[in-house]
Design a protein that fits this description.
Number of strands: 23
Catalytic activity: DNA(n) + a 2'-deoxyribonucleoside 5'-triphosphate = DNA(n+1) + diphosphate
Structural class: alpha/beta
Subunit structure: Single-chain monomer with multiple functions.
Strand content: 5-15%
Pfam families: 5_3_exonuc (PF01367), 5_3_exonuc_N (PF02739), DNA_pol_A (PF00476), DNA_polI_exo1 (PF22619)
GO molecular function: DNA-directed DNA polymerase activity
Strand order of the largest sheet: 3-2-1-4-5-6
Number of helices: 36
EC number: 2.7.7.7
Low-confidence stretches: none
Helix content: 40-55%
Distance between the termini: 82 Å
DNA sequence: GTAATCACG
DNA sequence: ACGTACGTGATTACT
């Protein structure tokens, strides 16, 4: 049998090390994970390298130890453990348990003492011992059979202390480490030592005298010096300090070496904890991922013929898709359950069944689904109009907590403690290994999803009601999903020819600029590579470096703009960048997304993604089509109506976020300004610059005021404003102060919303959407400041999102009621884009502003601007 | 996969 | 003193 090897870990010390060595990390639920992650990687590495036969992690027990009896101030004056670390200790314990590693703590004793005691016992029994800690004190335990591993700066970087290494490093024996600490003390443990004696002096003294005791026996013979005085004066302290630093190797532990046998982790439990903590890279690296989570049996039947008897009044329905691109991918299967057994129906059978089609289209038959919009869009491609969605797990989870990420049923289910369903990755694999399994496996997986939905519907709805968010979910998000589905399915026509011509013109221009840049640089290089560009600009041409990134020089537009006067090449690079962006993203990228069959693009609006409640748009993103610069704006000429004689109609909220702010803070000046229909940036300029007449406000003053207003919405900071306006921080701070003095209501609101967030842990919008801010009470300045700005911004941005969502629902109803052909196509945060027959424009001009302005009544009026034209470009 | 950049509100 | 504007998505380069 191989020689036994005992690994002893200092749990507290390693957790602290990991916490301070790694940047602040959090998982999807906002729990900090830097200590747990560092601890885990360290553990993984050491397990692999050492292959121990026995293991234990020791922890410090409560606050007081036997050392406090002889010295009350022991470890006094220590900083309180940061809450971001405290919250991680339970997970570290969970991790250790999942590894099947013994952990131990003992009242009145520190982890050191437990480790010392066990190390001694093991050595007596001829077992090799390795001790791992971040605390050098432990090196006193080193012997020929006991090696002490101390982590260096990182956590996986380790220095191995054997007696020989200690001799080499300090010229001392391990036992003399204690004497060294007795003389020099330890600030972190509040051990006094002898003032004025540091590491160097302590080592010198010990080389000469051997120990603290021997030193004091010989002290009379020492020649008079300042140091001798200090030593004499602090003799008592030296002895006490040595005593405190001595690790006790006779602790009354009630575990034996036999209890410490280590035979490897419980892989399922470990994966479970890793998933909870969001250690995706570790899960992927490990070969445990294939380990199938223990699943309860389910009752399911694969049906050949859908009968009316199978289709109940209320059922969980799952439509399994190949991937997230539901406008183009395949459907893999369908499962239904009413809480008894589950029915799995293959795609072929499902599409042949008129009974199923009728049931799916029957609004009175209630369906519990996940991602109703995806199911709606997929079924629509097969001529089935999904109706009667009564529960959508994706949306409900998002409302409970928008930080919950992922659209996999397994991921969402787990948030609510339901685990009887596998992650897609487990069933299909990922990347190149992705494949659809045999039907039995697929049927089981899809059925489990339906069963999960059935179980979760009451659980999640209860949670929504507890948080008073059921209305937001049921009356806003759920009906909105269907409207968004209709919009996506409808799509918007894009003229390929227009794009093609623009692309050709762009390519020619780009080629010319490219040559000019190469000439001015004196060589050819990849202009698209910031790294290569940096070398040309800052090394070769010697332009001044104004800003750096983590990896090198910054070549971002704001930096280049400041360098324009330095060299002609800069302007050309800016032009190149602008045109290259248009070409790659908006000409080539957009063209790829045009469906060949209808000449349209069908974006996907992500409804359960943003932290604030906004939508986002992907494949293609239609919410960032250029508008600010004329060259880019022309891209909009390619967006056209789908029918002859139709036009595009666009309506946007004017200053919706500032109006929301006015409503929430009730600042009299701000409210009044909106009620009187004033230009809000001019009004702000008057207050910030102290002028009484709007005519005195210059264009520049208004521009500055506009930036201040943005700053207010974003959670103002003087630095941010100074960067934006390219002014000094001091000036920016002055503007902010002027603003807050002029609008005391805003100041009060900002203060109270941050205070609320600190108390409740979350902020809310007008319709009670929540965003949790776990870092609002962090002791880390950056994290806390970020959370504070978020607390100020989210209610504003989120409430604006609430308003336009409500407007979309009301608008959809209104279009139906009026019997119009006009269709809503796009939403871009504060604007709605429709297409309509030209003869309906007059009606739209009347009803769209009316519906949008009355979506939610605020303390200030909402204002909507609108226009129409043959293309999106012309609807300005 | 991450970083840098840039498009939008 | 700390280092920053809020919220997104796509492309490219590079490891």
């Amino acid at each position: 049998m191989a020689k036994e090897k005992l690994l002893l870990l200092d749990g507290n010390s390693l957790a602290y090390r990991a916490f301070f060595a790694l940047p602040p990390l959090t998982n999807d639920s906002g729990i900090h994970t830097n200590a747990t992650y560092g601890f885990t990687t360290m553990l993984q590495k050491i397990l692999e390298e050492e292959q121990p036969t026995q293991m234990l992690v020791a922890f410090d027990a409560g606050k007081t130890t036997f050392r406090h009896e002889s010295y009350g101030e022991y470890k006094g004056g220590r900083q309180k453990t940061p809450p971001e670390l405290s919250e991680q200790f339970p997970y570290i314990r969970k991790l250790i348990d999942a590894y099947n590693i013994k952990r131990y703590e003992l009242d009145l004793y520190e982890a050191d003492d437990i480790i010392g005691t066990l190390a001694k016992q093991a050595e007596t029994n001829g077992i090799d011992v390795i001790i791992v800690s971040g605390d050098k004190d432990l090196t006193q335990l080193a012997t020929d059979n006991v090696t002490v591993y101390i982590t260096r700066k990182g956590i996986t970087d380790i220095e191995k202390y054997t007696p020989a290494h200690i001799e080499e490093k300090y010229g001392l024996t391990p036992a003399q480490i204690i004497d060294m600490k007795g003389l020099m003390g330890d600030a972190s443990d509040n051990i006094p030592g002898v003032p004025g004696v540091g590491e160097k002096t302590a080592i010198k003294l010990l080389k000469e005298y051997g120990s603290v005791e021997a030193l004091y026996e010989a002290i009379d013979g020492m020649k008079a010096s300042k140091m001798k005085e200090k030593l004499v004066e602090n003799e008592e302290s030296a002895h006490l300090s040595k005593k405190l630093a001595t690790i006790f190797t006779e602790a009354p532990i009630d575990i034996t070496l036999d209890d410490l046998a280590y035979a490897g982790p419980n892989e399922d439990a470990l994966l479970e904890v890793w998933r909870e903590l969001g250690f995706k890279s570790l899960i992927e690296k490990s070969d445990m991922q294939s380990a199938v989570q223990e699943q309860e049996e389910i009752q399911l039947s694969i049906v050949d013929h859908v009968t009316a008897a199978m289709l109940k009044e209320t059922m969980a329905l799952h439509v399994e898709l190949e991937n997230e691109h539901y406008h183009s991918c395949d459907m893999l299967g369908i499962a239904l359950t009413d809480g008894t057994d589950a029915k799995y129906i293959s795609v072929d059978k499902a599409l042949q069944s008129d009974e199923l089609k009728a049931w799916l289209e029957d609004a009175s038959k209630k369906k519990y689904v996940v991602d109703s919009k995806a199911a709606q869009a997929m079924l629509a491609r097969h001529g089935i109009k999904l109706e009667g969605v009564a529960f959508d797990l994706l949306l409900a989870s998002y409302i409970v907590n928008p930080a919950i990420s992922g659209d996999d049923v397994a991921t969402l289910a787990k948030e609510f403690g339901y685990t009887n369903v596998q992650a897609n990755e487990v069933i299909y694999g990922k990347g190149a290994k992705w494949s659809v399994p045999e039907e039995a496996v697929l049927a089981d997986h899809v059925s489990r999803k339906a069963i999960a939905l059935w179980h979760l519907q009451p659980v999640v709805e209860k949670k929504l009601k507890e948080n008073e968010q059921y209305d937001l979910y049921n009356d806003l998000e759920l009906p909105l999903a269907k409207i968004l589905g209709d919009m996506e399915i409808e799509g918007i026509s894009v003229n390929v020819e227009t794009l093609k011509q623009m692309g050709q013109a762009l390519l020619e221009k780009i080629a010319v600029i490219e040559q000019t840049i190469y000439e001015q640089a004196g060589e050819e290089f990849n202009i698209n590579s910031p790294k290569q560009l940096g070398v040309i600009l800052f090394d070769k041409l010697g332009l001044p470096v104004l800003k750096k990134t983590k990896t090198g020089y910054s070549t971002a537009a704001d930096v280049l703009e400041k360098l324009q006067s330095e060299h002609d090449i800069v302007k050309h690079i800016l032009d190149y960048r602008q045109l290259a962006k248009l070409q790659s993203t908006y000409i080539e990228g957009l063209t790829k997304e045009i469906h060949a069959d209808d000449g349209k693009v069908h974006t996907r609006f992500q409804q359960a993604l943003t932290a604030t409640g906004r939508l986002s748009s992907t494949d293609p993103n239609l919410q960032n089509i250029p508008i600010r610069l004329e060259e880019g704006r022309k891209i909009r000429q390619a967006f056209v109506p789908s029918k002859e004689g139709w036009v595009l109609f666009a309506a946007d909220y004017s200053q919706i976020e500032l109006r929301v702010l006015a409503h929430m803070c009730q600042d009299p000046t701000l409210v009044e300004a909106f009620k009187e229909g004033m230009d809000i940036h001019t009004r702000t300029a008057m207050d910030v610059f102290g002028v009484t007449n709007p005519d005195e406000v210059t264009a520049n003053m208004r521009r500055t005021a506009k930036a201040v207003n943005f700053g207010i919405i974003y959670g103002i900071s003087d630095y941010g404003l100074s960067q934006n306006l390219d002014i000094t921080r001091k000036k920016a701070a002055q503007f902010i102060e002027n603003y807050l003095q002029s609008f005391p209501g805003v100041k009060g609101y900002m203060e109270s919303i941050v205070a609320d967030a600190k108390r409740e842990g979350f902020v809310t919008t007008i319709l009670n959407r929540r965003r949790y801010l776990p870092e609002i009470n962090s002791s880390n300045f950056n994290l806390r400041s970020f959370a504070e700005r978020t607390a100020m911004n989210t209610p504003i941005q989120g409430s604006a999102a609430d308003i336009i969502k409500k407007a979309m629902i009301n608008m959809d109803a209104r279009l139906k009621k009026e019997g119009l052909q006009a269709k809503l196509l796009l939403q871009v945060h504060d604007e709605l884009i429709f297409e309509a027959p030209v003869e309906e424009i007059e009606i739209l001009e009347r009803i769209v502003p009316e519906v949008m302005e009355s979506a939610i009544e605020l303390a200030v009026p909402l204002k909507v601007d609108y226009s129409h034209g043959y293309s999106w470009y012309d609807a300005k």
